[in-house]
Design a protein that fits this description.
Keywords: Repeat
Distance between the termini: 46 Å
Protein name: RCC1-like domain-containing protein
Number of domains: 2
Organism: Gossypium mustelinum
Largest sheet: 4 strands, antiparallel
Strand order of the largest sheet: 1-2-3-4
Number of helices: 9
Structural class: alpha+beta
CATH topology of the largest domain: Methylamine Dehydrogenase, Chain H
CATH superfamily of the largest domain: Regulator of chromosome condensation 1/beta-lactamase-inhibitor protein II
CATH architecture of the largest domain: 7 Propeller
Number of strands: 28
Shape: globular
Pfam family, one: RCC1_2
Length: 552
């Protein structure tokens, strides 16, 4: 029943600040006599309709960080959640829309946005704050933005805590550790010059590191180049401490990816920029090969919002996320929810060797091109990964697709054949995957339960399957089909992230991050990149070993 018919004025609680129980108890709050209220025809004493206190309902929805799909379900099943709530900043917004807006405001990348920028984001996402929230959450899920993360770079490693503090260790010949020196370091060391700056995403390339702050700024250090510096003509200048990239100061960046001979960045609004392709190739824009100014990708992605980018050897993958339809006034449950879903798709651009662009051929693409195969598979991509010569995708339903050069079994199809279009990994049909990571002919898949599967090149023991004592058995056996990494089951904790080296010039190592923030490493460690000290001329670790650092 409506609050106006109960005879009692509505008590407004919108924008209640978060307080401890003690503070609330100590506050002076006026008391009101208990009255019998009626709720939807039920006359049980003590009950009251939700409409009597909508601000309390809004506060609960916001504090619980409900998923936008759940907010949509509330609107679909109850008129209270979809009618105008008469609250600022927009009196026409429903309780569910206001809750989605308040949850958006908790995101670090949303807080600095002006009102105009907020409205532009809302329009780009289909005119709904719930859809805008889904867009932001999709980006966070792909690359652990604003969460703890570990990056297994080529010879050096980066670890970011949940509060944005950055540690680095490993090879430092170009100053890529950011400590102001060129000295190699196997112990994780905090980058002191970044104190007061919260980092939300990191990327590591050969001799180079890039970090993204919650203010959308990008910091870089190492070789003064944007790709495989030591094998190109650029990179003569070395930077040993984090430096702000001035050419990106007018772009609010949320993700960066370092490929071979190029760098890509993703803006808060879902726009992709690339620069410094190197040599004589171009990537999505018509500029000089040595242009270090960021240029937006032209073609199909100009007006399509992107939530994730992934860079491999001379190619780039972009995960696009578009609303499939506007919210309509038909609130029948199924019809309403169907109009709420995003349509996800993958675009590729760059070098097509091995079929790694996924278009059924091995030709290069100068501009982003939609990979059509996912429509034929009836598959909604959720996460993309670009290895050196192959690529992978995790779908919304947990299926895994791989394509590209199949050397050493890195595609997981039981052979070493190439696939020029995405193909479902049938060996993982009983596994619901949530994440995938790719490297130089290696692939890792993370399941919803926290189990880890790997396949491909076993060099440097980076697949994690060798549980025998060191010096026994074949440490470097290739794996043609997905196998459970049993050594990670011994940590007795759910794994939430896998990162592995994605470079053709370095021996690979692998990180496994657990739910509580513990970080384990295995594979090549000759440069200190594992974060643990190797003894007796060792160059690698077969089994996962915990690094002395707590990322939570």
């Amino acid at each position: 029943m409506d609050a106006t018919t109960s005879g009692t004025p509505t008590i407004q609680y919108h924008n209640i600040p978060h307080q401890s129980g003690t503070a609330i108890a100590a506050a002076s709050v006026p008391t009101f006599p208990r009255q019998v209220r009626h709720c939807f025809g039920d006359s049980s004493p003590g009950e009251f309709p939700l409409a009597a206190n909508p601000s309390i309902v809004l506060h609960v929805l916001t504090a619980c960080n409900l998923d936008p799909r759940d907010l949509a379900k509330l609107e679909a099943t109850c008129s209270f959640f979809r009618r105008p709530a008469n609250f600022t900043p927009d009196y026409e917004l429903s309780i569910s829309e206001l809750a989605a807006l308040d949850i958006c405001k908790k995101r670090a990348i949303f807080k600095p946005m002006t009102d105009e920028e907020c409205q532009n984001l809302k329009r780009k996402c289909g005119g709904s704050w719930k859809l805008a929230l889904r867009f932001l959450l999709a980006g966070e899920a792909c690359c652990r933005r604003e969460k703890s993360q570990a990056i297994a770079g080529p010879g050096h490693s980066i670890a970011v805590t949940s509060t944005g503090v950055v540690y680095s260790f490993g090879s430092n010949t170009s100053g890529q550790l950011g400590h102001g020196t060129m000295e190699e370091e196997w112990r994780p060391q905090q980058i002191r010059s970044l104190q007061g700056i919260r980092i939300i995403q990191a990327a590591a390339g050969a001799g180079r590191t890039m970090l993204v702050s919650d203010a959308g700024r990008v910091y870089a250090f190492g070789k003064d180049s944007f790709g495989e510096a030591e094998f190109g003509v650029q990179g003569t200048k070395l930077v040993a401490t984090p430096q702000l990239i001035e050419s990106l100061k007018d772009i609010f960046v949320v993700q960066t990816a370092i490929g071979n001979f190029f760098t890509a960045v993703l803006s808060r609004e879902g726009r992709v920029y690339t620069f410094s392709w190197g040599k004589d190739r171009k990537l999505g824009h018509q500029t000089e090969p040595n242009d270090v100014e960021p240029q937006p990708l032209l073609g199909a992605l100009e007006d399509v919002p992107v939530v994730q980018i992934a860079a491999g050897y001379c190619y780039l993958l972009c995960l696009a996320c578009q609303p499939s339809g506007m919210l309509v006034s038909n609130y029948r449950f199924i019809g309403f929810l169907k109009s709420f879903f995003f349509s996800r798709s993958v675009y590729s651009v760059g070098c097509g060797l091995g079929g790694k662009l996924g278009h059924g051929s091995r030709t290069d693409e100068k501009h982003p091109r939609l990979i059509e195969q996912y429509r034929l598979l009836n598959l909604q991509p959720m996460v993309v990964a670009a290895g050196a010569w192959h690529a992978a995708v995790v779908a919304w339903d947990g299926r895994v697709c791989t394509w590209g050069w199949g050397r050493y079994g890195c595609l997981g199809h039981g052979n070493e054949e190439c696939e020029s279009v995405p193909k479902v990994v049938e060996a993982l049909s009983k596994v619901k995957a949530v994440h995938v990571a790719t490297g130089d002919y290696t692939t890792f898949v993370l399941s919803e339960d926290g189990d880890v599967y790997s396949f491909g090149c076993g060099e440097s023991a980076s697949l994690g399957h060798n549980t025998a004592a060191e010096g026994q058995g074949n440490r470097h056996a290739n794996v043609l089909s997905p196998e459970l990494v049993k050594s990670l089951k011994q940590v007795k904790e759910k794994v939430v992230q896998i990162s592995l080296t994605n470079s053709i010039h370095w021996n690979a190592h692998t990180f496994a991050l657990t739910e509580s923030g513990k970080l384990y490493a295995f594979g090549a460690g000759d440069k200190g990149q594992l974060g643990v000290k190797l003894m007796n001329n060792q160059t690698e670790r077969i089994n996962p070993e915990r690094i002395d650092i707590d990322l939570e």
